[in-house]
Amino acid sequence: MKKLLLITLAILPLKIYAANAIHHAPIGVMGDHFHKKGEWMVSLRFANMQMKKNIFNGNSISTEDILKQPNTFSKMPMVMKNSKSMSAMNDIPSKISDHPHTAPMKIPMNLSVIPKKMTMRMIMFGAMYAPSDKITLMGMAMFSDKEMILDTHKGMMTREYLGSFETSSSDLSKISLSALLNLHNAENSKWHTIFGLEKSLGDNSKMSLVLTPMNMKKSITLPYGMQSSDKALRLSAGITNVKLIGDFILGNQLLIKKVIDEKDWNFGDEFEYNIWFQGSFSDRASYSFRLNYRDQDSIDGSDKTIMAPVQTANPLNYGGEVINFGIGINVIYDIFGGVHKDRFAFEIIKPIDQNKNGLQMKDDITIHIGFQKSL
Ligand SMILES: [Cu+2]
Fold first, then answer.
1. Which end of the chain lies in a sparser environment, N or C, as judged by fewer CB atoms within 10 Å?
2. Ligand 1 mean position, distance from CA 33 (Å)
3. How far does residue 170's CA lie from ligand 1's centre (Å)?
4. CA of 202 to the centre of ligand 1 (A)
């Protein structure tokens, strides 16, 4: 009898602290669960995001219509290394905009390079540690790899297609440190807050060869979206509620990210809301449905060397609202041994509504794959 009681006590904490597949949120949600005092967890996540086609203020737009969009940089004096020609151009700004064919640099009046496909891959290493039952600390490092395929058209007259090219960048993108603070821990409803700092690292001025509308290969500073980092420091704050309704889980999370220290430019502040529903196939396998709403501001500031006849070179063509729907599974296996089991998770996400600012690529499917192990 005494033995039985001891075994029950030993198993009990496991039951409460995330023993079943359903006890962790869908893998795309961060900072959803707690650990018990002294416990560590390590995680490895991989995300693959695709973007295809373009949308203008949320509506689809054809290649022909993108080629009719004005190139914001055609009205600006060009930044040139030769100060003589720089001052000469400053003297005749009206001539540049009024008479494009006589402009010294032949800057296309309209957008001439069109993004066709973008792939972003992210690898995230994470660690969690609970100094007490009330607080769990969470650290994360993210590597990103971006690839974009673009089509170049002639800058003027016939606007004919000249060819395609690819740009890419990869780097350590950011690191973050957060604390989860338990506010309320009842049997069927748990509340906790998240506070953290996120530092963007990596290159923010990577250069790459591009095919210009003059049909020449030239090395330019890649547009904002292709840079691995914006070098900004962000504060993140959030609140999470996880409810147990019968055998099901209903989770809610609000998360904001605000830039508190920036360089010349930074990606906009973010607001994110997640609501997810989970059910169990068994203790070892659960499924999830998730709605995700994201609203991001456009880019603040600019990099004067980023100027190309492509939508991504304009800081206003960033941010906006996207609503995503995700389906996921969590499974528990016992592969690597130890006190705690091995958790694997998969989630596939598809946008259901996109109202992005200005002219941008359209989000397509994102997949998340994760491995988590408590120590
Ligand atoms: Cu954890």
1. N
2. 6
3. 27
4. 26
| Distance of CA 40 from the midpoint of ligand 1 (Å) | 8
How close is the Cα of 157 to the center of ligand 1, in Å? 58
Record the tokens describing residue 42, joined without a space: 């390590």
Domain regions of the chain by residue span: 2-71+113-374, 73-107
| CA 273 to ligand 1 centroid distance, Å | 20
Residue 101, pLDDT > 70, answer: no
Angstrom distance (rounded) from CA 66 to CA 71:
10
| CA 366 to ligand 1 centroid distance, Å | 22
- Fold (CATH) for 2-71+113-374: Porin (2.40.160)
User: 203 exposed, middle or buried (CB, 10 Å; 0-12, 13-18, 19+)?
Assistant: middle
Q: Is the whole-model pTM more than 0.90? A: no
For the stretch 281-335, pLDDT in tens is 999 999 999 999 999 999 999 999 999 999 999 999 999 999 999 999 999 998 8
pLDDT, tens only, 163-189: 999 999 999 999 999 999 999 998 899
Q: Where are the beta strands (DSSP E) in the chain?
A: 40-56, 59-60, 113-129, 135-153, 161-185, 189-200, 207-211, 217-221, 233-245, 248-261, 265-266, 270-282, 285-296, 300-301, 320-333, 342-356, 359-374
